[in-house]
Amino acid sequence: MTTSSKTKKTIAPRVPMPNQPAGERARNFKEVALGYTKEMAMQEASRCLHCKKPKCVQGCPVQVPIADFIAELVKGDVEKAYAVIKSTNSLPAVCGRVCPQEIQCEGACILNAKGQPIAIGRLERFVADEYMYMDACDLISAKPECPYIDEEKKVACIGSGPSSLTVAGYLASRGCKVTVFEALHEVGGVLVYGIPEFRLPKKDIVAKEVGALKDLQVDFVTNYVGGKTFSIEDLKEQGYKAIFVGVGAGLPRFLNIPGENFCGVFSANEYLTRVNLGRAYQFPDYDTPIIKGRKVTVYGGGNVAMDAARTAQRLGAETVHIVYRRTADAMPARHEEIEHAVEEGIILEVLANPIEFKGDEKGNLTSVTLQKMKMGEPDESGRCRPLPIEGETYELETDLAVIAVGTRPNPILLENEPDLKLNKWGYIETDEETNETSIPDVYAGGDIVTGAATVILAMGAGRKAAREIARRFGIED
Amino acid sequence: MANKILKKEQLIPGQTSKLVIDAPHIAAKAKPGNFVILRVTEHGERIPLTIADTDTENGTITIVYLVLGKSTALLEELNEGDEILDLCGPLGKATQLHTGGTVICVGGGTGIAAMHHIAKGHHQAGNHVVAIIGARTKDLLLFEKELKEFCPEVLISTDDGSYGHHGLVTDLLKERLEKDDSVIEVVAVGPVPMMAAVSKTTEPFGTPTTVSLNSIMVDGVGMCGACRVTVGGETKFACVDGPEFDGHKVDFGELRQRLAAFSSLEKESFEHHCRCKCNDNK
Ligand SMILES: Cc1cc2nc3c(=O)[nH]c(=O)nc-3n(C[C@H](O)[C@H](O)[C@H](O)COP(=O)(O)OP(=O)(O)OC[C@H]3O[C@@H](n4cnc5c(N)ncnc54)[C@H](O)[C@@H]3O)c2cc1C
Ligand SMILES: Cc1cc2nc3c(=O)[nH]c(=O)nc-3n(C[C@H](O)[C@H](O)[C@H](O)COP(=O)(O)OP(=O)(O)OC[C@H]3O[C@@H](n4cnc5c(N)ncnc54)[C@H](O)[C@@H]3O)c2cc1C
Ligand code: SF4
Ligand code: FES
């Protein structure tokens, strides 16, 4: 990108992010982006104009005081910068890595008009990583000492994704006794079973953020399934005065086309869960197996599709195609991830829609039939509709197909809690102001309310519910 | 302590064992038809096993497993007093219990244990329960004594004729259906070919038939779709919609193919495990 010719004063370009070379990283699971050094961070921070009314903050769903933390960074005071970020964001090392900054803070930054916006996400990541090791009590609460935990102010979170972790951090730092119940054997939700290691390291980042919550005396109970092992009523009987439901969006969608149950056709959730939660990339040292695939095709255009494709590449595929029915610029994935994927050799097979999977007599996938598409006129939503070009289909050889076309609400809790009112799409209905559900003192947020969305929106929802809980406990007004 | 193995009994030495596990939170909620997902080690795979019995008073559940590959071999290495690393449940939909008739429960191999809990449920619901159980040979037959406690009739078949009827469970089932029209339901739990054969046997009689499917699972809580099966032309998830389905509607051919999908990798895993163990012992 070049600086716009209309501006007189030229603004220095963004400090580039050092990455693992594409050829190398496409064969390992180590983190792709290596992070700024302090010098780089300070140089990037110095590009900030310190706007009086910073637009970037408005673009941030949890309203991190971005201009303030950047100002601290310019002075070289990383610790202060960290305290500023932590005052509203409990998982900055995660957000700095996975937030779609280009449509949030960076998208709103005034410098967009004059060139490149400040690399806010990279700065957030730098600051968070520097202070990963600091005492959780000081940092999460932004208070001088550990809070006194009042065993009476009992709060339960169901599910352990970013929405619940935010509720836990917010309330524990204000003296509530929080217990998080998780169905799987690891804590973190999509952060551990969905988003791959090369984008979000599990041990160094997610586990550390969770560890900080444990320091705040948050209890984590794994292998406990809401709706099965326990009900909301059980929790109330056990003295929980507020309950937050953050169970995510769950159940994968399929394409509903012939041949979809051939061996070799996976949902992205299964594929990524085997690899991330089951560490299948270290098979057979870990026991969960994965079919590696020689000619891999991935369906969808979001972050999930990018993650699945890049995972397949790392597992040693010869070719990986991402099949998407619109054009590449209409892909909903983060720009950075699409760029990284292409650099790693992934082929974008756009304007194509799968209509049938074919297999051999043993039921193993061998190929896919694709329908060529073209972009039609914009519909009511303003988005152009992809239309099939009649009669134009073609075959693509594939022995591993990964379907990443979204999810539906997981029924396991909802079916067993009939009092929980759902909206017409089957997600939990909540009060917009408080995030309370139709059951008093039961709140919900994250993907189970909005449908598959983003980490930061889930955190924003958690924060809203936590605030209301704190208010009712008389901790906050 | 959580998930502690209170009792271990080798039903068929080296092949099938029964564990009684301390899990009050699961025992309190478990119903016939439910299963658990467990993991034995940090590097372990999540595997589903049916809850074969529960004791709510003592807060225990019973599981019976066949040593097949690496994960069940690791489970078999645990002894009384050891703890199971992760134990999650009860999962799956509970058996639908109809009342007022004869229910025939057919079990094959390790499936007899799973069938036992379902049969018990039907008995407690007030049905006349007939058990038909089969194995390759006499020594591999499970739960005969336990079933006799509440089943007025326990019919037995062995492939080699070493005990009971010489032949298949479906022979006994067919004979029974021909002479008894009080049968309101047939339940089958066992290997896929057996469940397919039972469903085929009952079809001409129009007897409602329930099978408990053992599709491959990863999370077991409806998140991955690994367990999907085609039932009546629709895709269902065995872990949340099942594991029990209408046997007349299940696409058994597809299920068999999907179960084989990982077999070569599982063999690799098992061999790797054996190799490592041998090295440990050196
Ligand atoms: C592959 C992938 C890549 C993504 N990439 C990005 C990205 O780059 N940037 C971004 O912002 N967002 C991304 N997202 C989306 C983001 O991860 C989600 O929006 C976010 O995690 C939602 O958070 P949540 O708190 O609602 O729940 P989740 O993270 O979905 O966690 C829910 C947790 O609840 C547990 N649970 C479910 N049911 C029960 C129950 N009955 N009892 C107990 N526990 C239960 C689940 O096991 C899970 O651990 C991605 C998602 C995926 C799948
Ligand atoms: C709902 C349900 C209930 C079950 N109940 C019982 C039970 O009560 N007792 C019992 O002995 N077994 C039961 N099974 C089967 C049991 O889960 C498998 O035998 C076990 O996972 C095999 O693991 P392994 O590592 O020892 O063998 P592996 O080497 O992993 O597999 C051996 C063979 O088992 C099949 N298999 C592998 N993984 C699974 C899986 N996750 N689910 C089902 N089949 C698989 C494959 O066809 C494979 O070829 C049940 C399965 C399901 C889905
Ligand atoms: S909008 Fe951009 S330039 Fe202005 S304060 Fe925010 S980051 Fe700095
Ligand atoms: S095992 Fe994952 S959805 Fe059933």
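^ iron/sulfur cluster complex. The first strand of chain B starts at residue 5 and ends at 12. Chain B has a mean pLDDT of 91.
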